[in-house]
Amino acid sequence: MNEQGTAARIVAVAERILRDEGADAVSMRRVGQAVGVTAMAIYRHYPSREELLRAVADRGARALAERWLRHAPPSGGLEERMSAALDGFLDFALGDPHLYRFLILDAWEGARRFPEDFRDGQGPPFSVVTALVEEGMRTGFLRADDPLEVAMTVTSATQGLVQQYLSGRIGMDEADFRALCHRSTWRVVNGLRSKTEA
User: Fold this and answer.
1) Does the pLDDT at position 64 exceed 70?
2) Which end of the chain has less Cβ packing within 10 Å, N or C?
3) Nearest one of 5, 110, 4 to 52, comparing CA atoms
4) Could you give the CA distance from residue 153 to residue 191 in angstroms, rounded to a whole number?
5) Residue 122: pLDDT above 60?
6) Distance between CA atoms of 139 and 154, rounded to whole angstroms?
């Protein structure tokens, strides 16, 4: 395996461990054993555990954004595409809870910070939401405002609900929980609509 292939394999294995068991289970030694290299060999590609986790985060965020774009309706109204983006987010959060917690909730060195790391497409999944918000403002569906802050406002309600659901604090089955997320998101979006649309 060449050096580039080894680096990619290291990240893939680290991501698998994180998805199965959470970020705390990712260690250089454990990843090295799974890849078949020494922990010291990993440091040639990723000088610290934090840099390895950052590579995992980048890979996971890109994959989520690509999945959203693949499953979003290519045409149709803005509301339909917003609902599809929410469904894609819930598919990810509920289907991959360890990676979700790592990307969205966990505090770790190098984690993206709002707003500086979310401008110019630096947060791939968030960029999908921001593009929808920008379109909504451009077309007059949403009133003019800061697109990044509005995207954060719209997504934060669902993130809070997901956090409570994954912690066992919301006593609903998944279908009812998803419906709650849709109702809550649209309450927020409807509050941000332009007066001509409201």
Assistant:
1) yes
2) C
3) 110
4) 11
5) no
6) 18
Asked if residue 47 has a cis previous peptide bond (ω within 30° of 0), the answer is no
CA distances for 95 relative to 38, 89, 92, 160, 162, angstroms: 32, 10, 5, 17, 12
Taking only the tens place, the pLDDT of each residue in 2-29 is: 667 889 999 999 999 999 999 999 999 9
| Cα three-residue angle 115-120-124, rounded to 5 degrees | 85
Helices (H) and strands (E) in the chain, counts: 9, 0
Structure confidence by residue, pLDDT tens digits, 128-155:
889 899 999 999 999 999 999 999 999 9
Tell me 113's DSSP state: -
Look-up: residue for tokens 């991501």?
Answer: 15
DSSP 70-97: HHS-SSS-HHHHHHHHHHHHHHHHHHSH
Tell me if 72 sits within 8 A of 88, measured CB to CB. yes
pTM above 0.85, yes or no: no
In the chain, helix, strand, coil percent, each to 5? 75, 0, 25
